[in-house]
TrEMBL record:
This is Integration host factor subunit beta. One of its GO terms (molecular function) is DNA binding. The keyword DNA damage does not apply. It comes from the Bacteria. Keywords: DNA condensation, DNA-binding. Gene3D superfamilies: IHF-like DNA-binding proteins. Belongs to the bacterial histone-like protein family. Coiled coil: none annotated. GO terms for biological process: chromosome condensation. InterPro entries: Hist_DNA-bd, IHF-like_DNA-bd_dom_sf. Pfam families: Bac_DNA_binding. One of its GO terms (cellular component) is cytosol.
Length: 99
């Protein structure tokens, strides 16, 4: 499902104009991105957590040149779904596979 499809689905279910839904969805993503860039985690109860994970410094290999390179410590965005959400997906997939 694409962002445009999500916007269309929300607009049809709520009766809100697509333009307003798009602005809201874009604002949500902007807030999540800016919070994570500043090092804050975002928690959405019943859905999941957008968290910033720290990757430690490590040594890797450049196979084409056969040399070792150092990858410095860095941070990556990550999503951890809520248990309720994971359970619903498991049940939903079970039903769709058996159908």
């Amino acid at each position: 499902m694409t962002k445009a499809e999500i916007i269309a689905e929300i607009a049809s279910k709520t009766g809100i104009e697509k333009v307003d839904v798009q602005e809201t969805v874009e604002a949500f993503f902007k807030v999540v991105k800016s919070s994570m860039v500043s090092g804050e985690n975002v928690y959405v109860r019943g859905f999941g957590s957008f968290v910033v994970k720290k990757r430690a410094k490590k040594t890797a290999r450049n196979i084409s040149k056969n040399t070792a390179i150092i990858i410095p410590e860095h941070f990556v965005p990550s999503f951890k779904p809520a248990k309720v959400f994971v359970d619903k997906v498991k049940i939903g997939n079970k039903n769709s596979i058996n159908a």
